[in-house]
Write a structure and sequence with these properties.
Elements: E1 2-6, H1 10-21, E2 25-30, H2 36-45, E3 48-51, H3 56-59, E4 64-67, H4 76-83, E5 88-89, H5 91-96, E6 102-107, H6 112-125, E7 130-134, H7 140-146, E8 151-155, H8 158-162, E9 171-174, H9 189-197, E10 208-212, H10 216-221, E11 230-235, E12 246-250, E13 253-256, E14 267-270, H11 279-294, H12 299-307, E15 317-322, E16 325-329, H13 336-345, E17 350-354, H14 367-373, E18 374-380, H15 385-391, E19 397-401, H16 404-414, E20 420-423, H17 436-450
Parallel strand pairs: 1-2, 1-4, 2-3, 4-5, 6-8, 6-9, 7-8, 9-10, 10-11, 11-12, 16-20, 17-18, 17-20, 18-19
Antiparallel strand pairs: 12-13, 13-14, 15-16
Helix pairs in contact: 1-2, 1-7, 6-11, 6-12, 16-17
Length: 451
């Protein structure tokens, strides 16, 4: 088969290597420059590629096209392929054809990475042969070439799900659906929700669908009665309207009931030793615990592994302590909702560092939490006017800065023992920083300078 790969980053190159390994004719095309490490992989495998262009005549000869998730549907080359009915699939769809491993696939607007990394950690610590793949930065297709694992834990964005057709996860997880990337879905929440729900579309009675019963958009769009998959809803509370597979009996005690076939009685698992902060992370933990339990990981193994988990950087990550105040890096919080989760999850008095490139933010939902918990707001951005307007009179003290070092120094001066200095910007980073990682690293470095 003549397979063309559009996009030559992690997923595209992984797909190219797998297709080549399975004997297909492969051509890779990227409209942008290809990173040297990916060029080396393609060259070493003898795979033909082009960069900085799409040669339409060559691409339109494809029997099948694997499209990288970052390429939008409206791209001219994609439209040309659609016009002649060339099948377009995702890297995940291709990988699914060639693995016998059980895939635990996780999606949702928020919390995907944390839940994926935690699920992987719980299975790995229990001694299972497990791979980590997908939106966390590792190609599933490339790992499937050798296929050394019994399980893969795969983070899937809506973009990665859009071109799946027959891919069948063993366990699918849907954490939440909130407005995001709507420009790719005709500004329709219903279309975005449909994209997320593709994760379980091909599952049958051998599979499990773990989902957040507290999420209104999931409830609105998931027609559970018509699905053969085994459904395992979870909640932060005991709910009489659901037969819940998992819920919190107490703040750090979950009760599981996975239905007949697992064990005869309900089971309690303590999450007290988890370092993760906040209500949203309690949902992420519960989803990961359910995944691990379905995979046969025992209660004691789960409780032990929860304590040793270290989340990805820049996600509510403690980076130091100065004079009894804890400094937390949540630079990944680039939108209002993510900042809400952080403010909601920290119960101690907060010195809040926020600001950056505004994406049309509406700060209304943050006002009650700010009024209740924030002692001071340090605005860190090239233009802080919108933040100033929203929070003047809401927080007792407000200060402006355009420097991370200055922001940390001012925060340290304002903080008292027991306080939390929280970098949770609610904005993109591109006014003063290269990206959110750069912003988070500068925050951590500035804290360490003062420790």
């Amino acid at each position: 088969m003549n397979i063309v790969i559009l996009g030559a980053a992690e997923s595209g190159v992984g797909a190219a290597l797998l297709a080549h390994a399975k004997g297909h004719t492969v051509f890779v095309s990227d409209k942008s420059p290809i990173q040297p490490r990916y060029k080396e992989k393609l060259t070493a495998a003898g795979i033909e590629f082009e960069e900085n262009q799409h040669t339409e005549a060559r691409i339109l000869q494809a029997d099948e096209v694997v499209k990288s998730p970052g390429i939008p549907e409206k791209a001219p080359i994609v439209q040309a392929l659609r016009a002649q009915n060339t099948p377009i699939i995702s890297e995940i769809e291709l990988a699914g054809r060639y693995t016998k491993a059980k895939c635990i696939c996780i999606t949702g607007t928020n919390g995907k990475t944390t839940t994926t990394l935690l699920t992987y950690h719980l299975l790995k610590e229990a001694g299972l042969k497990v791979g980590l793949a997908g939106n966390v930065g590792y190609s599933l297709a490339e790992q499937v070439i050798d296929d050394q694992h019994d399980y893969y834990v795969v983070e899937l964005s809506s973009f990665q799900l859009d071109d799946t057709h027959d891919f069948q996860p063993w366990v699918s997880v849907l954490l939440n659906i909130t407005p995001d990337h709507l420009d790719r879905y005709d500004y329709s929440m219903e279309k975005y929700a449909e994209s997320k729900l593709r994760i379980m579309r091909r599952q049958d009675s051998n599979g499990y669908f773990i989902y957040n019963a507290d999420d209104e958009n999931i409830q609105r769009n998931f027609k559970g009665a018509f699905r053969p998959v085994r459904q395992l809803p979870f909640s932060l509370h005991h709910r009489p309207d659901f037969h819940l597979a998992g819920y919190y009996e107490e703040e750090s005690l979950v009760r599981l009931d996975l239905l007949p076939g697992f064990y005869s009685e309900t089971e309690e698992i303590s999450t007290a030793n988890s370092p993760l902060i906040g209500k949203h992370n309690r949902q992420n933990i519960l989803a990961a615990v359910l995944c691990a339990r379905v995979a046969g990981v025992g209660k004691e193994q789960i409780e032990s592994a929860l304590a040793t988990f270290r989340n990805a950087d820049h996600r509510l990550q403690p980076v130091g302590e100065i004079n009894g105040a804890t400094f937390i890096n949540d630079s990944k919080a680039t939108n209002v909702e993510a900042a809400w989760y952080a403010l909601d999850g920290i119960t101690k008095p907060i010195i809040w560092i926020a600001g950056g490139t505004d994406k049309g933010n509406d700060y209304t939902s943050l006002l009650p939490l700010a009024q209740e918990r924030v002692k001071a707001l340090i605005c860190l951005g090239a233009d802080n006017e919108k933040l100033r307007t929203a929070f003047t009179g809401v927080v007792p003290y407000l200060v402006e800065t355009q420097s991370m070092t200055d922001a940390v120094e001012r925060a340290a001066t304002l903080a008292r023992p027991g306080d939390v200095v929280l970098l949770s910007p609610a904005c993109a980073s591109f006014d003063l920083f290269k990206n959110y990682e750069d912003r988070g690293r500068q925050f951590a470095a500035a804290v360490q300078e003062m420790v």
